[in-house]
Each structure stands twice: as C-alpha cells, then as structure tokens.
Amino acid sequence: MSSVTPTRSPAVVGYGPWVIHRLTAVLLVALLTVHISVQVFGVIIFYRLGIYQYLLDLMLITVFTHGFLGVRATLLGTDWSSRVKMIIIWALGAVFVAVVSLRIIT
Fold it and tell me: Phi and psi of 81, rounded to 5°?
C-alpha cells in the first residue's frame, strides 16, 4: 500500500490547482498570524496603515479558495462517476464565485 493518497497527487488534481492549494495554505498561516497578533496581542500597526480590513478580505478569499480546492481534490479522489463529480465541483465553484463576488461588491 502506498503512503501517498491520490488526493495529494498533482497528477490527479492538476498541477495548477495543486500549487494554488499549497500557496493558499502558506498565505493562510501568514494572514492568521497577522489576525491573531491584532486580536490577541493588540498590535495596531495594521490599523494605523489602514490595511487591516483589506487583509481580512484577503483572508476570506484565501480561506474559500483553499477550502474549495481541498473539497475538489477530495472529490476527484472518490470512486463516484465523473459526471457527479463535475456537477458537485461546478456547483461549489458557483457558490465560491458568488460569495467572493458579493464580498467584493459590498
């Protein structure tokens, strides 16, 4: 039995989404560090620079992107028919675009 799961293989999920999924993971660590430093430790430099709300918006988009790509990778690793997988992926993609678009508009 192999120690590598099919959902972690870039050959299964595609190299572009695989790289983006990893990059969003690293970006989330950085953004969560900023968020925790502001909320828990009271670091106010991000408020003074006027970028804290933009960082929160970026974190929201990053969380949704990372989550969407994770669910996509998991679905592609299942034994379901390719039609069912694509319907679910497209539906989740539409919800992802709607949420991000609404956040950008409002």
Answer: -65, 150
DSSP run (H or E) holding 27: helix 15-39
- 73-96 pLDDT, tens digit per residue, is 888 888 888 899 889 989 998 998
C-alpha–C-alpha distance, residues 44 and 35, integer Å: 11
Structure tokens at 28: 């989330």
DSSP code of residue 50:
T
The model's pTM: 0.78
67 SS3 class: helix
Q: Which two tokens stand for residue 77?
A: 């690793």
Residues 6+ apart with CB under 8 A from 92: 68, 71, 72
DSSP state of 42: -
Q: How far apart are CA 58 and CA 89, in angstroms?
A: 23
- The single residue listed with the structure tokens 């925790």 is 36
CA distances from 19 to 2, 14, 36 (A): 22, 9, 26
Residue 25 CA to residue 60 CA, distance in Å, equals: 13
